[in-house]
Structures are given as C-alpha cells and as structure tokens.
Amino acid sequence: MATLFSGAKLPTPSSPLKVGDLAPDFSLPDQNGKEVRLSEFRGSKNVVLAFYVLAYTPG
Amino acid sequence: MIGISVDSSPANKVFAEQNGFTFPLLSDFKRTVSKEYGILNEEYGFANRATFVIDKDGIIRHIDKDRDAIDPSGAHAACSLLEHKKS
Q1: Residues of B numbered 21-50 whose beta carbons fall under 8 angstroms of chain A's beta carbons: which are they?
Q2: Do residues A17 and B60 lie in contact, with contact meaning Cβ atoms separated by under 8 Å?
Q3: Pick from B15, B33, B47: which is nearest to A26 by CB?
Q4: Per-residue pLDDT tens for B42-66?
Q5: Which residues of B touch A50 (CB under 8 A)?
Q6: Domain holding B16: CATH number?
Q7: How far apart are the C-alpha atoms of A34 and A41, rounded to whole Å?
C-alpha cells in the first residue's frame, strides 16, 4: 500500500500539464470539418486554447 | 484563439455562427485531447472549462482551470507578456 500512495512518479495518462511543459500536439476537425493541428502554429503564432463546456450549457 | 469542446463539428458550426465566432472551434468528439490535457471530467464525459496559453515554441505559458477560466484576464495578461517578449 505504501507504494500505491507514494507512487507520484508513476506516469499516468491524466497527469496534469504544467506551465513550462510542451503542449501535446493534436489534430482535430474544426466547425467546417477542416483538420487543425496545433503544431501548425509553432514558430509563427501564440495560441490560446480554450476548452469549453458543452456549447448549449450555460456556465 | 482556438476553442475545443467535445461537441460534434455540426454543433460547433451552429454555435460559431450564432455567436459570430471566426476562430476555429475544434471537436474533441473522442475526448482524447481533453484527456491528454488532464481536463476530462470522467464522471460526466465532458471537458472541464480550461484555458491554456501556448507560445510560439509550443510551450505552455499559462493555465486557467474551472472558474478561473471564465474570466479571461489571466489568459489576456499572459498573451500580453508573450506579445512583448523579445525572443
């Protein structure tokens, strides 16, 4: 059990990203079905990535 | 500025049109990106609200989560810093 609770170094898929980390690259379709890849902006633009809750759910 | 939600592309299209958004709204329908960024609400299956500011080198420079992400001033300030950064 001790190892279970001291296993902070175990890599987990949900390990939170921190400031200073490299943003994981991804490619997802936009509202018009066009694929947008995060790394497209590398070297040219800063990116504000806003995750939002369901489009029709206020708050 | 890029928006991401777990909504479908057609739903995002309507949402963008109704609000006059011109920036991309990406559909993370499979929730892989939300999970990778550590903001997937496993219980309800949608992404929590969060804002990441990423610089030109692909490095995360600012993170707002949950209620903090509603107020854009933190992200805005981080962007201003990047704009003025000489690199």
Answers
A1: 24-28, 32-40, 46-50
A2: yes
A3: B33
A4: 887 777 889 999 999 999 999 998 7
A5: 1-4, 50-51, 69, 75
A6: 3.40.30.10
A7: 15
Please tell me what DSSP assigns to residue B79: H
pLDDT tens readout for residues A1-41: 544 554 444 444 446 899 999 999 999 999 999 999 999 99
Buried-state track B2-15, b at ≥16 Cβ within 10 A, e below 16? bbbbbbebebbbeb
Are the C-beta atoms of residues A31 and A55 closer than 8 Å to each other? no
Q: Which of residues 4-43 of A touch B (CB under 8 A)?
A: 13-26, 28-34, 36, 38-39, 41-43
SS (HEC) of B3-40: EEECCCHHHHHHHHHHHCCCCCEEECCCCHHHHHCCCE
Chain A hits for B3, Cβ within 8 Å:
50-52
Residues whose CB falls within 8 Å of the CB of residue B24, separated by 6 or more in sequence, listed in order: A30, A31, A34, A36, B2, B3
- Residue B9 CA to residue B5 CA, distance in Å, equals 9
